[in-house]
Write a structure and sequence with these properties.
This protein is an alpha/beta fold. Helices cover about 40% and strands about 15% of the residues. The protein contains 7 helices and 7 strands; from the N terminus they run βαβαβαβαβαβααβ. Strand 1, helix 1 (about 25-35) and strand 2 (about 40-45) form a beta-alpha-beta unit. Helix 4 (about 115-140) packs parallel to helix 5. The longest helix has 29 residues, at about 115-140.
C-alpha cells in the first residue's frame, strides 16, 4: 500500500461514535475534549453527574453531539446500558475509551482484602466487561472498531509506597489488551492501551507545587524521566487520537507508554 496523498486524513474521527467512560476524570476529560474537537459524536459516562454535565457542555461548545449517562460501568447491566445509549442515540459504536477506574494506596499488611478487590473490580473487571459489551456491538456491525483501555507505567513497574492493588490491576489491563488484540485481530477491531506516568490531575496537583514536599518528590521522580518533566493532559491527546483513528489500524495488543521515557530506563 502506498503512502496516502492526504496522510492527515488517517487521523480523522469525524462522525465516528465514541463512548468515554470516566469522562469526568482527568484522562476521560482529555479523551472527551480531544474527540469532540476532532468531530466525533460522543456518549459520555461518569458517576459524578455535576462534573459530567460540565464536561458534556464543554464538548458541545466544541461542536460535538453529546449524549450523557450518569453511570459507572459497575456491572454487566450497567455496561450494556452505556453501549445501548450509544446505539439508541447514534445507531452504532466505533470507539470505546475506558477511562474509569480507581487507586487505593496502602501497605499490603494494612490493606483489607476487600480494598484490593475493589481496585481490581474498578480497573480490571469493568474494563473487561466494557470491552466485551462494546466489542459484541462492533462484531455485530461487522466493520471493525477501536477499543482503548487505560493502563499505567505501574502495570510494568512496581512502586514501594503501597501500590500492590494498583500495579496488579494495571498489569491485568495490559494482559486483557494483549489477549484481545490477538483474539479480535482478524475482525478489524483493534484493542490498545495508553499507559501514562505521573500527569497533572486533581490527584497529582500537589506534585506540581512549590512547597518542599512537592519539590523533593518531583525532583526524585524526574531523575528517572529522560524528558525531564511531569506529564500534562495535552500529552495524552495525540496518543488517544492515534489509537482512535485509522492511523492505528495495524496496531493492536499494544501498550503505548506516555511517560517521557520513564519506562525506557
Amino acid at each position: 500500500m502506498s503512502v496516502p496523498t492526504d496522510p492527515l486524513a488517517l487521523f480523522s474521527v469525524a462522525g465516528k461514535v465514541a463512548i468515554v467512560t470516566g469522562a469526568s476524570g482527568a484522562f476521560g476529560a482529555v479523551a472527551a475534549r480531544t474527540l469532540a474537537s476532532a468531530g466525533a459524536r460522543l456518549v459520555l459516562a461518569a458517576g459524578q453527574a455535576d462534573a459530567l454535565t460540565e464536561i458534556a457542555d464543554d464538548c458541545r461548545a466544541r461542536g460535538a453531539e453529546v449524549e450523557t449517562i450518569a453511570q459507572r460501568p459497575s456491572d454487566e447491566a450497567a455496561c450494556a446500558g452505556i453501549v445501548a445509549a450509544a446505539v439508541a442515540r447514534f445507531g452504532r459504536l466505533d470507539i470505546l475509551v475506558v477511562a474509569s477506574g480507581k487507586n487505593d494506596v496502602a501497605k499490603i499488611t494494612e490493606m483489607a482484602p476487600q480494598r484490593f478487590l475493589d481496585v481490581m473490580d474498578a480497573n480490571v473487571t469493568q474494563s473487561w466487561l466494557l470491552a466485551r459489551t462494546a466489542g459484541a456491538q462492533m462484531l455485530t456491525q461487522g466493520d471493525g472498531g477501536k477499543i482503548i483501555l487505560m493502563s499505567s507505567a505501574r502495570g510494568l513497574l512496581g512502586h514501594p509506597a503501597g501500590y500492590t492493588a494498583y500495579c496488579a490491576s494495571k498489569s491485568a489491563v495490559d494482559g486483557i489488551t494483549r489477549a484481545l488484540g490477538c483474539e479480535w485481530g482478524p475482525t478489524g477491531i483493534t484493542v490498545n492501551a495508553i499507559a501514562p506516568t505521573v500527569f497533572r490531575s486533581p490527584l497529582t496537583a500537589w506534585m506540581f507545587g512549590d512547597d518542599d514536599r512537592a519539590r523533593t518528590t518531583r525532583e526524585g521522580f524526574l531523575a528517572r524521566v529522560p524528558k525531564g518533566r511531569l506529564g500534562e493532559p495535552a500529552d495524552l491527546a495525540g496518543p488517544l487520537l492515534f489509537l482512535a483513528s485509522k492511523a492505528s489500524d495495524f496496531y493492536t495488543g499494544h501498550i503505548l507508554y506516555a511517560d517521557g521515557g520513564y519506562t525506557a530506563g
